[in-house]
């Protein structure tokens, strides 16, 4: 079992930046592909970004490309999501996930994930 704990969300204004963190604990001996998804009220969970086990490959959803950056520190079992130029439409609960998918390309869908964090609210006011 792997437990994921997210932090760093909050209320910001449009144009501001936030950094989310996700710390993994438990069976961290296996290296997972890590990803971030988000879910706004009344909407389906949306892919935001994911990063390969080594950190060398990343994918982004079209709506965040060029504004968000995912990174990981395997020594600290932590993945980060740097969010810049935030917009009101970025408002959502952000979830960190760990995937055993065979490649990060396959980890762009939520059903590829084996473990999820509890979610962290990000609210962007206009």
Q: Can you give a write-up of this model?
A:
β4 (33-39) and β5 (46-51) form a beta hairpin. The model has no long low-confidence stretch (mean pLDDT 95). Strands 2, 4, 5, 6, 9, 10 and 11 form a seven-stranded mixed β-sheet that branches. With 126 residues, the protein is mainly β. It is 0% helix and 52% strand. It is built from no helices and eleven strands. The protein is globular and about 40 Å long.
Brief account:
This protein is mostly beta strands and 126 residues long.
Question: Topology, please?
Answer:
Blueprint: E1 2-7, E2 10-13, E3 18-26, E4 33-39, E5 46-51, E6 58-60, E7 68-73, E8 78-83, E9 92-99, E10 113-116, E11 120-125
Parallel strand pairs: 2-11
Antiparallel strand pairs: 1-3, 3-8, 4-5, 4-9, 5-6, 7-8, 9-10, 9-11
